[in-house]
Amino acid sequence: MVATENSIYVSDKAKIKVHQLMEEAGVVGNDAYFLRVGVVGGGCSGLSYKLDFDNEVKPMDQVFEDNGIKVVTDLKSFLYLVNTELNFSDGLNGKGFYFDNPNASRSCGCGESFAV
Length: 116
Fold this sequence. Notes:
This protein is an alpha+beta fold. The chain has one domain: Hypothetical Protein Aq_1857, Chain: A (Sandwich). The chain has 2 helices and 9 strands. The strands form 2 sheets. Strands 4-5-2-3-9-8 form a 6-stranded mixed beta sheet. The chain is globular.
């Protein structure tokens, strides 16, 4: 991935899984819904990622679209997520979403938390 601007990126595998989950949640095709990405305190490395579907953009939110997926994050989380790529793995070593975050100085073994 080559960052061309400050954004949040979505891989092809993550796009497929997000669409599948939106379908299961009954919100696929509803343009009011988007993927909310955030960073919260916690986890074994100090910070954890948070993913959810939402339909309310708040005043200080940062809004992006990549690979057909609308991604929204709060401004504080974006400082940790700038130029991060959301990916999805369904391999034997673990199944789920993970982040390729160039800002993380270290991450934990489970891949769910990080430090800067």
